[in-house]
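re: that chain from earlier
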Amino acid sequence: MVLLVSVLLLLTPVAPLQEKPADLSKEEILRKAVERWAWSDAQKFDRRYVSTVHSLDEEFDGNGAAKTHIDRVVQVVPLGEKMRGHRLLEKDGKPVSAAERKAQWDREQKAIAEEGKNKKKPGARHNSNGEDDMGFNNAMVARYNWRLVGTEVVDGRPAYVLSLEPKKDAPVHSMVDHILNKVAGKVWFDAQEFEIVRADAHLTENASILAGIVGSVKKADIFFEQARMEDGAWLMRKMNFHVDARMALVRTMREHHMEEHRDFRKVTPELIAASLKPPIS
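^ sequence. v structure.
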């Protein structure tokens, strides 16, 4: 028996030891992370994959009692090189009917036809003025005071852990800046590729927009996590946020949103062709 156990131990693959991350300063880590984000954004990795998404949306009244509860499982499918369809598989734990699957497919076919017409129209381009740019760039980094907390292992990969706190003199150029300038938390950066592996953030105080006329956010907590694909792409795997806000002096909003992505599939011509086939009754 002892000999048998010894042989089995020899044949069992041993997990590789985690390498200790390089001794970098917070400035070096952030610089590499900004460069990596710009590179990843240019690669458009999110267009190369589709996934199945489980989401939960809840809304609460002023006493904390649930007003709405919507639980969905949606499969994202490629309908073309850039076009995606979102097929509802389950709602509140119940699978959709065959008739609904067919109706979803019919709507997709109409959307594909409409997209084909729009491509033929000259000058049909998206115009972005950059105001909604929420990228991890130098401007974003400059809003906060950063501190290197230490290192942790996330999904078997070493990561640097940095904390952030808002600077008192952070600039305000748009409405969203009122919120960004009051965010604190932690960010985990992959020690090899400097992608954001995980982020956990919250508001440090009430954030008013235009003296509360547009609205005010009393509380907000957000957590998200990314997963690394075999080809080096990093994609969002999990997100969870709570928000307690008042909009336009009237409406109170207390909401919770959760989503988890799984079954990542790389977009290929074969997968597109399979997605365009009508559902089997």
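The helical segments are 2-11, 26-43, 98-119, 138-142, 177-180, 269-275.
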